[in-house]
Amino acid sequence: MFRYVVLGLLRSGASLHGYALMKRYRQRTGLSINTGSFYRELQRLVTERLITSATRGTDADPRRAPYVITDAGITAFDGWFAAPIPPGSTSSGEDQLAARLLFLAEAPPEVARAVLGTWHEALWMRAKQLDDARETALHDPEARRTFDALPHLLARRLRHIAADIELIDELRAAYGAWAAATANGTSTKDEPDGFASLQHRSA
């Protein structure tokens, strides 16, 4: 998910140089990344035209090139953020759900509610598929002739998805309370100005 986290960090339209991006990446994800690897990934994003080098000021440090997100990068990030969670996807110790949740607070409320609903529905569908597969495996005549670990592995996956569904339920309740407090003026957190295309897509 490296590319989407970096795109999310630039989604507001602000420009950040490589070191600042790497620092924010570590702070936001809690993950460590090698400096060389980070800059190589940044160059891939530039090559794919998802980000581009911004104009430096005359007094800027020439060793620190700022980056900004492109229209293509915005489209890529918004599509990824609003999409259903791919089953069983992990990268660098972080999973797809957790990576998206890093940017939940920066989305407009209607977008956040919509994507929470999308993720919840996708997880329930995945749980239903796994439960059906587990029932099939349990009643497979061939499996009865020898020990079959598959039903137990499927049960393990079901427990993981159940935990994610519980997390989404908790987040929906917590987000609803936060949004209500914000609407009533009891919260001082300003709504971010990013995610404009997602806001229109979810309307």
Summarize the structure.
The chain is mostly helical and 203 residues long. It is built from eight helices and five strands. The chain has two domains: 2-82, Arc Repressor Mutant, subunit A; 104-198.
Structure notes:
This protein is mainly alpha-helical. The protein has two domains: 2-82, Arc Repressor Mutant, subunit A (Orthogonal Bundle); 104-198. The chain contains eight helices and five strands. The chain has helices spanning 2-10, 18-29, 35-47, 71-82, 96-101, 109-138, 150-183, 196-202, and strands spanning 16-17, 51-53, 66-69, 90-91, 94-95. Strands 1-3-2 form a three-stranded antiparallel beta sheet. A two-stranded antiparallel ribbon has the order 4-5. α6 (109-138) packs antiparallel against α7.
Question: How would you describe this structure in keywords?
Answer:
mainly alpha, Arc Repressor Mutant, subunit A, 3-stranded antiparallel beta sheet, 6% strand
Q: What's the topology here?
A:
Layout lengths: L1 H9 L5 E2 H12 L5 H13 L3 E3 L12 E4 L1 H12 L7 E2 L2 E2 H6 L7 H30 L11 H34 L12 H7 L1
Helix pairs in contact: 6-7
Shape: globular
The major β-sheet equals: 3 strands, antiparallel
Number of domains: 2
The number of helical elements comes to 8
Q: What gyration radius follows from the Cα positions, in whole Å?
A: 21 Å
Number of strands: 5
Mean pLDDT: 82
Binned strand content: 5-15%
| H/E topology pattern | HEHHEEHEEHHHH
Helix content: 55-70%
- Taking pLDDT < 50 over at least 5 consecutive residues as the criterion, the unreliable ranges are 188-194, 196-203
- Structural class label: mainly alpha
- Rounded to the nearest angstrom, the distance between the terminal CA atoms is 26 Å
Biggest sheet strand order reads 1-3-2
